[in-house]
Amino acid sequence: MNRWIWTCGTVFLCCVLVIGCHKQANDQDAIRASIDKHLNETVGLNLSAMDREVKQISVNGDHASAQVEFRLKQGGDARMEIEYTLERQGKMWAVLKSAPIGGGSSQPGAQGPPNAPDTGGGSLPSGHPPSN
Questions:
Q1: pLDDT tens profile 20-75
Q2: What backbone torsions phi and psi does residue 14 show, to the nearest 5 degrees?
Q3: In whole angstroms, what is the distance from residue 1 CA to residue 65 CA?
Q4: Cβ atoms within 10 Å, residue 72
Q5: Is residue 67 a part of any domain in this protein?
Q6: Rounded to whole angstroms, how far apart are CA atoms 11 and 25?
Q7: For residues 7 and 5, what is the distance between their CA atoms, to the nearest angstrom?
Q8: Which of 36, 63, 29 has the alpha carbon at shortest distance from 129?
Q9: I need a labelling partner for 98 at 20 to 30 A (CA). Which of 1, 25, 30, 47 fits?
Q10: Per-residue pLDDT averaged across 98-120, rounded?
C-alpha cells in the first residue's frame, strides 16, 4: 500500500513539473510570435535588413515584458534594444507598447523616417517601427 502511494505521488509530481515547464515554454513562444506579428504588421519596416534576438522575457500573470535586441545586418556594431510590454488576451499575447532601453529617445522628432540611416545617439535602427 505504501509503495502504491509513493508511486502515485511521484507520478503526480512529475506530471505537475512537466505541465508547469510546458506552460512557461508556451508563453515564451507565444510572446515571441506576438512580437513578430507586431513587427510584420508595421508598415515600412524592412525586417530583412535586421537581425533580432529576444534577450529576456518576464511573465507576471497576464502581463509580460520582453527585451529585444535589433542589429543591422550590414551595420557593423549598430544595435538597439527595445522593451515590449504585452498583455495576455485569451490564449494570445498582444503588444501594448514598446520603448527603447537605455540611451534611446522616445521623443517623436528623434526617430526620423523609417528608412533613414542609423545616426547613433540613441535613435531607432533603420526600418524599426516608432516606439510608443
A1: 444 556 899 999 999 999 999 988 888 888 899 999 999 999 999 999 999 988 87
A2: -60, -40
A3: 48
A4: 19
A5: yes
A6: 21
A7: 5
A8: 36
A9: 25
A10: 51
CATH number of 9's domain: 3.10.450.630
In-domain check, residue 80? yes
Range of the domain at 27: 2-110
Give dist(CA 113, CA 44) in Å, integer.
Answer: 9
Using CA atoms, how far apart are residues 68 and 56, in angstroms rounded to an integer? 7
Number of domains in the chain: 1
Q: Which residue has the cell 529585444?
A: 68
- Is the C-alpha dihedral spanning 84, 59, 71, 45 positive or negative? negative
Q: Kindly state the cell numbers that stand for 101.
A: 532601453
CA distance 42 to 104: 20
